């Protein structure tokens, strides 16, 4: 291996998002809503971006990526599928689906953050760590969000949601119930989106009464 390339792997960091992926019927609802919005200040889900529920964000060394994947896979094998509820829309002109933060979701979020503690740094996020980095260059809010995720958006401050975009809210009947059965690991892109998937894991623990 070229020495310069090896040194780059050892020192480079990327911004990552560990997420719950959504079942087809919820993805379709998200795409439908997003397609009717003003995507000039967000993205279009039809361009390969994945609607999702963030479990934890951070910045990791590229050299630690495989070890992180192994830990997330272990967690997935020990986690049952999650029954979740969309309660309502949250936000004003820029809005999301608000997800009920039940005990199982809270436990999974805490477990993901405890894994990230082993690999992730905080307070040092930089636009160059993001996928689509040139589009993130002037997005100070996103860089700050990831940099401070562990202290401003995690644990007691965790607020599960599915970001949809900016525009006029459609009429919807709530609540909407669904089951999440997959965890994804993504290199974070513009607007905090998930496009470049680094790994995907099935939740394989089945609860029996």
Can you put this structure into words, describing what you see?
This protein has 209 residues and is α+β, with helices and mostly antiparallel strands. It is built from seven helices and nine strands; from the N terminus they run H-E-H-E-H-E-E-H-E-H-H-H-E-E-E-E. The strands form two sheets. Strands 5-2-1-8-9 form a five-stranded antiparallel beta sheet. The chain has a four-stranded antiparallel beta sheet with strand order 6-4-3-7, with helices on one face. Strand 3 (82-91) and strand 4 form a beta hairpin. Helix 3 runs antiparallel to helix 4 (103-119). It is globular and about 45 Å long. The model is unreliable at 1-10 (pLDDT under 50).
Q: What portion of residues is helical?
A: 25-40%
Alpha-beta content class:
alpha+beta
**How many helix segments?**
7
The parts where pLDDT drops under 50 for at least 5 residues are 1-10
- Radius of gyration, taken over Cα atoms and rounded to an integer in Å: 17 Å
Q: Could you tell me the mean pLDDT?
A: 91
Pick out its properties.
single chain, 209 residues, alpha+beta, four-stranded antiparallel β-sheet, 7 helices, globular, disordered N terminus
Compile the SSE list and pairings:
Blueprint: H1 3-11, E1 13-21, H2 24-35, E2 52-61, H3 65-77, E3 82-91, E4 94-99, H4 103-119, E5 120-121, H5 133-136, H6 140-147, H7 149-152, E6 161-166, E7 176-180, E8 182-188, E9 194-202
Antiparallel strand pairs: 1-2, 1-8, 2-5, 3-4, 3-7, 4-6, 8-9
Helix pairs in contact: 3-4
What's a quick, concise take on this entry?
The chain has 209 residues and is of the alpha+beta class. It contains seven helices and nine strands. The termini are far apart.
């Amino acid at each position: 291996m070229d020495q310069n390339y090896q040194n780059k792997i050892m020192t480079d960091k990327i911004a990552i998002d560990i997420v719950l992926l959504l079942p087809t019927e919820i993805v379709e609802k998200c795409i439908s809503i997003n397609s009717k919005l003003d995507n000039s200040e967000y993205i279009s889900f039809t361009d390969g971006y994945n609607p999702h529920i963030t479990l934890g964000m951070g910045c990791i060394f590229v050299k630690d990526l495989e070890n992180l994947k192994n830990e997330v896979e272990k967690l997935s094998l020990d986690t049952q599928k999650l029954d979740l509820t969309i309660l309502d829309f949250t936000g004003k002109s820029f809005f999301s689906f608000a997800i009920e933060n039940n005990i199982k979701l809270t436990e999974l979020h805490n477990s993901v953050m405890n894994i990230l503690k082993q690999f992730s740094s905080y307070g040092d996020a930089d636009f160059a760590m993001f996928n689509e980095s040139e589009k993130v260059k002037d997005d100070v809010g996103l860089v700050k969000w990831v940099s401070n995720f562990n202290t401003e958006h995690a644990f007691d401050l965790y607020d599960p949601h599915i970001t949809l975009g900016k525009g006029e809210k459609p009429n919807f009947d709530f609540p909407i119930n669904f089951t999440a059965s997959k965890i994804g690991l993504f290199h974070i892109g513009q607007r905090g989106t998930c496009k470049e998937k680094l790994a995907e894991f099935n939740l394989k623990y089945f609860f029996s009464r």
